[in-house]
UniProtKB/TrEMBL annotation:
<keyword id="KW-0547">Nucleotide-binding</keyword>
<dbReference type="Pfam" id="PF00005">
    <property type="entry name" value="ABC_tran"/>
</dbReference>
<feature type="domain" description="ABC transporter">
    <location>
        <begin position="10"/>
        <end position="259"/>
    </location>
</feature>
<dbReference type="InterPro" id="IPR003593">
    <property type="entry name" value="AAA+_ATPase"/>
</dbReference>
<comment type="similarity">
    <text>Belongs to the ABC transporter superfamily. Ycf16 family.</text>
</comment>
<keyword id="KW-0067">ATP-binding</keyword>
<protein>
    <submittedName>
        <fullName>Fe-S cluster assembly ATPase SufC</fullName>
    </submittedName>
</protein>
<dbReference type="GO" id="GO:0016887">
    <property type="term" value="F:ATP hydrolysis activity"/>
</dbReference>
<dbReference type="GO" id="GO:0005524">
    <property type="term" value="F:ATP binding"/>
</dbReference>
<dbReference type="InterPro" id="IPR003439">
    <property type="entry name" value="ABC_transporter-like_ATP-bd"/>
</dbReference>
<dbReference type="InterPro" id="IPR017871">
    <property type="entry name" value="ABC_transporter-like_CS"/>
</dbReference>
<dbReference type="InterPro" id="IPR010230">
    <property type="entry name" value="FeS-cluster_ATPase_SufC"/>
</dbReference>
<dbReference type="InterPro" id="IPR027417">
    <property type="entry name" value="P-loop_NTPase"/>
</dbReference>
């Protein structure tokens, strides 16, 4: 097991950011995530939830105007704000998109092997040939209950919403990130697809990784129980608590928290 010596895997201090040349969106975020933890970030539309994940991942449309974001790895701490997006990914950061992109003409298998070998090289390992990779891929397909036919199709082309989200979880399974940021993986899913995606995330949790779930609704948390829940409004966290906070949001909505924070 990796030894983080009691340090947070991810530490965010007074993070402030905006769309380039736009008004402030994040206005001072503080957050610490320990190995093995799952955090849920909730809030109404426009509160800054997706911006938070994109800024951590290094999306080029955003400008950081203050604060720090540090990722702890077995090789030491990395200042994510000084790293390029591909460097953040190689350090163990994974972003599951709300709307995954289609890649016509590239099979899912080819895409997954390229991503897997890129991360393998970054971790000082030899890339795998197609047969070696297929053995690992088959294990992950079986773990997640995904048909092998799924990997022969072009990446996300003509995939349903549920299939796109399950493909994100398959990528996560293969890349084994230290920190996974899952941006509204419940968006547009029916109950069966939501349950399948949630079960996949649950199977991939270990004492050495961490997950951040960004969601509007408590329904995802019927299947995944976070250690901490943070409510965001107007670019800051206005309340944090345990999984029962999400249940309270489901019963009472956001207004009672927004009004008490005003």
């Amino acid at each position: 097991m990796m030894n983080y010596k009691g340090n947070a895997m991810l530490k965010i201090e007074q993070l402030k950011a905006r769309v380039k040349d736009g008004p402030p969106i994040l206005k001072g975020i503080d957050l610490e995530i320990l190995p093995g933890e799952m955090h849920a970030v909730m809030g109404p539309n426009g509160s800054g939830k997706s911006t938070l994940s994109r800024v951590i991942a290094g999306h080029p449309d955003y400008e950081v105007t203050g604060g720090s974001v540090t990722l702890q790895t077995p090789d030491g701490s990395i200042d994510l704000l000084d790293a390029e997006p591909h460097e953040r990914a190689r350090a163990g950061l994974f972003l599951g998109f709300q709307y995954p992109m289609e890649v016509p003409g590239v099979s899912n298998r080819t895409f997954l092997r390229a991503a897997f070998n890129t991360i393998h090289r970054a971790r000082g390992r030899m890339p795998l040939d197609p047969l070696e990779f297929d053995r690992i891929l088959q294990d992950k397909l079986e773990l997640l209950g995904i048909s092998r036919e799924f990997i022969q199709r072009p990446v996300n082309v003509d995939f349903s919403g549920g299939e796109k989200k399950r493909n994100e979880i398959l990528q996560m399974a293969l890349l084994e990130p230290r920190l996974a940021l899952l941006d509204e993986i419940d968006s547009g899913l029916d109950v069966d697809a939501l349950k399948a995606v949630a079960e996949g995330v649950s199977k991939l949790r270990t004492p050495d990784n961490a997950v951040v779930l960004i969601t509007h609704y408590q329904r995802l948390l019927d299947y995944l129980t976070p250690d901490h829940v943070h409510i965001m409004s107007d670019g800051v966290f206005i309340r944090s608590g345990g999984s029962d906070l999400a249940l309270e949001i489901e019963e009472r909505g956001y207004d009672w928290i927004l009004n008490s924070a005003a």
